[in-house]
Amino acid sequence: MLTASYEARPYGVRSAIPLYQARMACPELIVVPPDMQKYRGISREIFEIFRREGRAVEGLSMDEAFVAVGVATLDEARAFAAAIRREVFESTQLTVSAGVATAKMVAKIASDSCKPDGLLAVAPGEEAAFLAPNAGLALVGHRAQNTSALKRLRDHDDRQLAALDDAQLRDLFGSWFHEVRDLASRRRFAPRRART
To answer: Given CB 3.0 to 4.6 Å as the disulfide criterion, which of 29, 33, 110, 177 pairs with 169?
Structure first.
């Protein structure tokens, strides 16, 4: 399967599982053939919205991207993301989830955690508290099915990750090694909150 609607997911239907398994999990499943030409056209339209006013955009897939906000307060960045979501909906009638944070990996995890159709902003200095219960999501680019990469992340604490050089991190985590180092540093050096 290419993807699964949110209505099908509670039955255990996920993207990249064989169709026969999806039908077994959800006998009332409605299967719609993909229209890649249409998807590419809408993706181009959405990315044009992202790039307006010379915004820097780093695409992750047809429907995911990092969009640079520039220097802004958290409220300004949240308003920026809300405006983009509104523009996309007005143009395509599609909803967009968005995460706002000082680091790309944190923004991606925030976006994933507020789907569908949500907006979540993580304040500077709050990254460690936000990420603590989401350790298994911390490898952007290595989805949940990449269990070996997730195991490597769990098997290394932040001090160990910070001690590795770039080549070692690249061997462990591939092209996202910079983000893993950034995440480890943020968690390691974040001020600890007093317990109440």
So the answer is: 177
